[in-house]
Amino acid sequence: MAVTPILLLACGNPSRGDDALGPLLLDALADQLDPQTVECIVDFQLHIEHTLDLQGRQCVIFADASVRDVTFQFTRLTPTASLSHTTHALSPAALLGVYRSLHGEPPPAYLLGIGGLSFELGAALSPAAQTNLAATTRFARALLQGTPAAIAASAAASARMPD
Amino acid sequence: MYEHLETAANPAGLKRVVVDPVSRVEGHGKVTLLLDAENRVQQARLHIVEFRGFEKFIQGRPYWELPVLVQRLCGICPVSHHLAAAKAIDQLVGIDPADLPPAADKLRRLLHFGQVLQSHALHFFYLSSPDLLFGFDSEIGKRSVVAVLADYPDIGLQGVKLRKYGQEVIRMVSGKRVHGTGAIPGGMNKALSREERDYLLQDIGQIVDWAQAAVALIKRVHGADRAFNDAFATIRSNYLSLVKADGALELYHGGIRAKNADGATLFDHYDYCAYPELIREEVRSWTYMKFPYLTALGKADGWYRVGPLARINNCDFIDTPLAEAARVEFKQQLADQGLVHSTLAFHWARMIELLHCAESIQALLHDPDLLSGELVAQGSKRYEGIGVIEAPRGTLFHHYQIDDNDIVTKANLIVSTTSNNTGMNESVRQVAAAYLSGRELTEPLLNQLEVAIRAYDPCLSCATHAVGKMPLQVELVDAAGQVVDRLTRHGNGEFARGDAG
């Protein structure tokens, strides 16, 4: 199967309140993205085999709920060798570190963190998370119209903005 | 039996050692040890500290939501919950398993084989292979699949790709890797397309070869120190699983067979819809997780183990040739007295099942029923449905009742890890008594407790129970670590202050 240039990889449990933000972002964008350019994948957690999904991409964007007090944050990720020994699930940066050890330098990767407050089982999205999701959807829609180079520039500009 | 180590006779003054969290398992658990002045173990317990309350969450929902809803119990075996719920909901729309159209039945089986394949690969290669390849007392930096990938790249990558292939089977059948919508009341929502079938066929030969290599690997690892591996964390127990009508290994649908530790059959082809008579669940004050037991044998003797080892012990044969040959060799090498009780043999049994899944997927992909035919059967409404399946970790029960408005009024789930609760605790106590007692505890020694637990492949996320129904202890601990107050909620909902339980 052909590999699209951009991968949008969301993780989270839709039954745990604001943990659903990543999957819900993909739902909101799904009909508006060019499938020749952007592939969307959703999963509960990141695992080693997701390194295989990263192969051949020009860039990768991870979408996930964030516990930080932000509407959303868009930042460039740096691969890390640190691993959690408590579980098989990985952080996006650790996944990039595994990719580097297996396949060489990973594609440019970014984290789109969406601010969430409540992560209880069975809870609906919190009102703040709904607001944050709407703003993030607008941002991501514009972002994903661009080229990988434009996405990189956007992340660089975001990194210079104060929290 | 090591049940004398469940509760110390006099806990005051004992030294407390906590392994928290238990690593490389799904979910959050901890082990506590109480030691006397000579480091002799007086108490050893596995606690489940995550609390999900899923049964309560289900109540009040329309029943047709359940196959999708219950997948969110777990990120590792969502398809098992999806299919167990689907089997229960088939009954709510008046369809028994024998009435399901052949195409739907085979698609569900294909989905399930993909699920078990990916889950077994994840557990063996991602979580347990560091212990098995580097040793239980290896340096902590070696205890990850990344270290396996560095030192044994062929083995590690085969594990990654086996898991990936199982995920692809799930994606092709249900539309997504997780939260797919393959099963619907009375059947399936789509056939496999020819393109999807051909896509999966491309790699299945390689997958079967790698699954065979995985069996050879665990056989080699287990045989490298046979006496130790046979004895480590090993306990004699009853075993429970589904079997086919002819006694073959069965993962999707069958009757319940239970054997005792001597290999004698306790029940055979028992109708799983009568499981409430077969199984009771005991609650204990020190953990959220229940302790199921066979009613006929009682609390003391009726506890049992489920999962790959139970299934391989219980079945008469496997109906795929390579896995059957592997089963025969497994039994010849390890079953001195009829059944294999070695807890570490769970890994070997798991890889035999991995091979069975790969062979079964290969056979199903050549079955023309997958590509066409009726997909949904219709019947008349019933108010109660029970679905049982052999999930990767063992027998999984979903039981629902609905009202006139099709709303779920009662839900009961017995997940595989709950059935293994006594077994895991017994294995923890065996390791504590045999390898830790009287020694100065070090981190590598404590890892042995985790190795024992990991063999069961526990999923601690979905093994906890309904809100308000489980015993609960709240402790107030002062700065010196002394418990100054304790509030206990018992299984009957009553509260008591100062009750150690």
Description of the molecule:
The complex is a heterodimer of chains A (163) and B (501). Chain A has 163 residues and is of the alpha/beta class. Chain A is 34% helix and 20% strand. Chain A has 5 helices and 5 strands, in the order E-H-E-H-E-E-H-E-H-H. Chain A has helices at residues 21-29, 50-54, 92-103, 127-143, 148-160, and strands at residues 6-11, 38-43, 59-66, 72-76, 109-115. In chain A, helix 1 links the parallel strand 1 (6-11) and strand 2. In chain A, helix 1 crosses helix 4 (127-143). The model of chain A has no long low-confidence stretch (mean pLDDT 88). Chain B is an alpha+beta fold and 501 residues long. Chain B has a 4-stranded mixed β-sheet. In chain B, helix 3 packs antiparallel against helix 4 (102-134) and helix 12 packs antiparallel against helix 13. Chain B is globular and about 70 Å long. The model of chain B is unreliable at 464-472 (pLDDT under 50). Classes of the chains: A alpha/beta (163), B alpha+beta (501).
What is the number of strand segments of chain B?
17
Q: What fraction of residues of chain B sit in β-strands?
A: 15-25%
Bulk shape of chain A: globular
Low-confidence stretches of chain B: 464-472
Strand content of chain A: 15-25%
> How is the biggest beta sheet of chain B arranged?
4 strands, mixed
Report, as a whole number of angstroms, the end-to-end distance of chain A: 40 Å
Average pLDDT, all residues of chain A: 88
Q: Helix-strand pattern of chain A, N to C?
A: EHEHEEHEHH
Which pair of chains has the greatest number of interface residues, and how are they split between the two chains?
Answer: A-B, 25 and 35 residues
For the CA atoms, what is the radius of gyration of chain A?
15 Å
Strand order of the largest sheet of chain B: 8-7-6-11
Number of strands of chain A: 5
Helix content of chain A: 25-40%
H/I helix tally of chain B: 16
Strand order of the largest sheet of chain A: 2-1-3-5-4
Approximate shape of chain B? globular
Taking the sheet with the most strands of chain A, its summary is: 5 strands, mixed
Gyration radius over CA of chain B: 22 Å
SS field, number of helical segments of chain A: 5
- Global mean pLDDT of chain B: 88
